Amino acid sequence: TVNNDRCFANHPILSQIDQCTDSKQLKRLHAQMLRIGLFFDPYSASKLITACALSPFASLDYAQKVFDQIPQPNLYTWNTLIRAYASSPDPDQGLLIFLQMLDQCPELPNKFTFPFVIKAAAELSASRVGRALHGMVVKASLNSDVFILNSLIHFYAACGCLDMAYQVFVNIPRRDVVSWNSMITSFAQGNCPDEALELFRVMEAENMKPNDVTMVGILSACAKKLDLEFGKWVHSYIERNEINGGLTLNNAMLDMYMKCGSVEDAKRLIDKMPEKDIVSWTTMLGGYAKLGEYDAARSVFNAMPYQDIAAWNALISAYEQSGKPKEALAVFNELQLSKSVKPDGVTLVSTLSACAQLGAVDLGGWIHVYIKKQGIKLNCHLTTSLIDMYSKCGDLEKALEVFQSVDTRDVFVWSAMIAGLAMHGRGRDAIDLFMNMQEAKVKPNAVTFTNLLCACSHTGLVEEGRDFFNQMEPVYGVVPGVKHYACMVDILGRAGRLEEAMKLIEKMPIAPGASMWGALLGACRLHGNVDLAEQACSHLLELEPRNHGAYVLLSNIYAKLGKWDKVSGLRKLMRDAGLKKEPGSSLVEVNGVVHEFLVSDNSHPQCEKIYLKLDEISARLKSVGYVPNKSHLLQFVEEEDVQEQALYLHSERLAIAFGLISMGPSQPIRIVKNLRVCGDCHSVAKLISRLYDREILLRDRYRFHHFKGGCCSCMDYW
């Protein structure tokens, strides 16, 4: 074989392979090699495989077919195919080829084989496979090879084992700059920015010269820490040491400045950058959006030479995550009309989340149909988003249908479905689903328990909630956090066990957060415990001095007990502090369009018809003996000249009236309100559902209220 390799090494066809520019030319050369027998020379075949698998016009399918025709591939050829698969969307094929090689190749894996196959294991986060490969490296006496050890650092970091990655790093006999870069990057990406920066200092002390890759890792650590001062020092260090990283390094600096909130530094940098790409523009766009500078973000988007899907996603996601779902859907609609790029999975996840916030089930359902028509595979992210959207839009059966239709369910899919059942008041079903989750061997996380405890809270399952809370750490290894304690306080408080809730707060091992005091204050309002309410409100305002909700809740309690001097005092405090009660608003979707109503709203185009319908509703309510519960006016309306009219014009009533005049009798009226529904509006919605024979689903800040035929599926807590 050696003699043949030497004989064919200078064959003109082999030099033509090196000069190939497209797959057609390569296939012609392949045919010529077959005709003259050159293909059956292992060296020549390896040259062809390299071009098929690693060239700019590579085709792994074609490379695999060529490989399968080679009678006895040499080790170089096996390594080339493993390398190509390790960097492809199918790294698992690289592992399979490696196993085939162990069985069929007469040569043992060498120092070139292991970095490629370890990379494939890293891409898959295949911990057991990678550890086995590490063992093979040691057995083959290759455990001092710096290239292999560098790949092991990356592998262990990719699997979340930073301790093992660091152990490999410190045991490298002669570390090169790649070793340092691998470990620094692993720390930076593994949420250990302090360790990354400390390692950089050690690198400097050992006189190892950093390069552009090092600096990208360090800038990433600065961005994670929001350490602008050190980030600026790194920028000057790069300039002093003339480290030329080009576009990638400039983008890393840009990202650091935007994440640290230094817009001016970012502007100066991007203006000086000789080259900009989509990452540069998207970084600026996303940074502006996160800082709430939406006009600037939009200006950057409009100025981009080309808006790829990443840019659209950045804008949609920025609006959605900043509580601007209407704007997010407007951008999504713009994307659809532009027809320049197609939405991807990230687009759909963000848009579904915006639909969930608005209760826009028509658009959410359209996206679901789009996913099916486009043949987009439902991964766990999309499944979770669909379940969340349908649940929050009031279509729990559709959410369950999505959940049951998928084979792969991770912890987030299970948790989303438990949350859906919880917000619809189906606590027992949520607990049953949690038990099914255990049978499926899916380990619950902190989010799962938050949702499970909410389910117990909404349905009054005190003992069940207590049991789950007590089992969290000893049984499931999940340490209770602030949200779990707040849920437990809410469970006990709703059940009237206020002293027990207070004792839980006093004994908890972590500092009580605002959510806990808020839950206790809400329970005090429910049960009229003014002394404990004053304590809870005092603690809450210490943590959040501008929390207008705390003043309103305590005011509600005083008003309910007739302590009008106290109510006046609180309102004066709010006025002096410049605080105002958050205005109530209700959303209702009709024919795919979301309509918003405020209290006493008269801005809607169909305002006249809506108020005529309200008059009709009012007359029908009085005919069946409805009397407004004016105590709710005193609790929820700030104006002193409170009248019955104020209840009549609450935003959810306007939304219901609009739903009645705009939707068919068989269509459920789905409403999303930003605040808690007052007790009087709850009673009115129940009556309307009976008088008009309509299904009404009303989602407030806490949960769903499902009215049908004059009945409500929720527990009344007014």
Short structural description:
The chain is mainly α and about 725 residues long. About 70% of the residues lie in helices and about 5% in strands.
What does this protein look like?
It comes from Davidia involucrata. This is DYW domain-containing protein. One of its GO terms (molecular function) is mRNA binding. The protein is mainly alpha-helical and about 725 residues long. The chain has 40 helices and six strands. α4 runs antiparallel to α5 (about 60-70), α25 runs antiparallel to α26 and α28 (about 445-460) packs antiparallel against α29 (about 460-475).
Query: From the alpha-carbon coordinates, what is the Rg to the nearest angstrom?
Result: 32 Å
Strand tally: 6
The biggest beta sheet is recorded as:
6 strands, mixed
β-strand percent reads: under 5%
What is the strand arrangement across the widest sheet?
Answer: 2-1-3-4-5-6
**For the residues shown, what is the average pLDDT?**
90
Gap from first CA to last CA? 88 Å
What are the low-pLDDT stretches, counting only 5+ consecutive residues below 50?
A: 1-6, 634-644
- The best one-word shape is elongated
Structural class determined from secondary elements: mainly alpha
DSSP helix fraction? 55-70%
Helix tally? 40
**Regarding quaternary structure, how should these chains be classified?**
single chain
